[in-house]
Amino acid sequence: MAERPPAVTLGVPRLVLGGRLLFENLRLHLEAGRWTCLLGPSGVGKTTLLRLLAGLVPGGLVVTDDGRPMDGRLALMAQQDLLLPWLTVRENVLLGFRLRGQRRRRGAALVARAEDLLARVGLAGRGDDLPAALSGGMRQRVALARTLMEDRPVVLMDEPFSALDAVTRHRLQDLAAALLRDRTVLLVTHSPREALRLAHRVLVLGGRPARLREVPVPAGEPPRDPASRELLEREAVLLRELVASVTRGEEVPCASSAPS
Amino acid sequence: MRVLRPLLTLAGLLALWQTLVWATGVPRYILPAPLDVARRLLRDADLLAAHGLVTLGEILLGLLLGTLLGVAAAAGLAAFRPLRRWLEPVLVASQAIPVFALAPLLVLWLGYGMASKVAMAVLIIFFPVTAAFFEGLRRTDPAWLELARVMNARPLAVLRELRVPAALPALVGGLRVAAAVAPIGAVIGEWVGASRGLGFLMLHANARLQVDLVFAALFLLAVLALALYRAVDRITARIVYWQKETLTPTG
Predict the structure, then answer these.
(1) Between B152, B158, B242, which is nearest A86 by CB?
(2) What is the pLDDT of residues B57-88, one digit of tens each?
(3) Which of A58, A64, A184, B222 has its CA 20 to 30 A from that of B119?
(4) Min Cα separation B230/chain A (Å)
(5) What does the buried/exposed string (b/e) look like for A155-175 if buried means 16 or more CB atoms within 10 Å of the residue's CB?
(6) Do B162 and A71 lie within an 8 Å CB cutoff?
(7) How far apart are CA A125 and CA B231, in angstroms?
(8) Are A78 and A238 in contact (CB under 8 A)?
């Protein structure tokens, strides 16, 4: 990575979606070069916050601590792998360059880097396969390689591991934590355990309009041991709080959130 | 086995037909037996082949032009918003006109030759191809488009690398429909006014109570249509090489 990752602050003065006041005077701060995990029940607006940061929905103000704009400095990883089925694995890893028309310049060097990244996510030699030939976990690893290929200082991830089985998820979490160390990362997740394993900071989004609350994380650098006593205790506490906040009616699941 | 089973079904149906003709003693000029038709097919092979070639030419040319026009129209609609606003409703409404009703006009304008039949086929093919491809182009997965946006993709590259390939399966569906209806267009055109082609031959033979020739021409037309459909199916399967068939075709 060529540049130092910036700290990023998103300010949302007021956002109404579907007739419902989602955020008011909300401020989300991502520390430079660290992982921030955003937790919260479904429908509370986690993904919307991520999309505001990415500039995919209007209404947010994004500021970086180095004063340069965010545009062109972030990469996105979603729950679906978003691989294009007609491109090979290698071509998918290189998708950004293809879409920016940068394939001809430094073509060989790019391919070499794509191969290197595929090897690092454990997919050496699979570059010529079509995505359909891969398992769900392998596809998500290709998506991770594509994200790394972009080599951007800020990485936004929207539940990238939630569709995977427990073992694959665990291994992919370790891999992502290792490969995206020192970047400014926002990971949206509904899993308290995942947040407590991977984050330097955990923020819980809740209420209406939604507010952010920081909760303490276990000691030590991520990725943390999921079996550590501290992590398990914090997970239990966090889970209890989330359940309580939902039953208090602070958040309602998507389906019943129609405005009155 | 895959080819054998439907062939056996066909043989059974033909045997039933033959038995029916023998048992009832229907005159040959009303309903000829399959054997009569087969005999006619062999005796007039040259005649049938000559007319069949004409019809095949019309179908292929119509399919080619109709596909090109349909793809171009869909791409235009997808690329230019004003075109969508001004043209799309008209295009949809135009489908209320039965194309067959236009056949006499086409013959009047374009003459008894090949042109009016090709035009007829083009008219029939154009809409399914346009509609299918345009539908595919407008339904690109929004998540892909957002990924492209975050990657700072160039608009033209999004069209070429994302929208068009993503729309190809839909286009292929349209092409299969086109291959199935193209022979109808050509034959209708020949019925209305022609001096060559299988449609003309059938009409002519029908008037002279040469019903076995009608059936022979019909048989050849069906073979042509089937071969065309298979060919288009093969070619289009290569276009969308990444799509796996999830239903086994037969059996």
Answers:
(1) B242
(2) 999 999 999 999 999 999 999 888 898 889 88
(3) B222
(4) 23
(5) bbbbbbbeebeeebbbebbeb
(6) no
(7) 35
(8) no
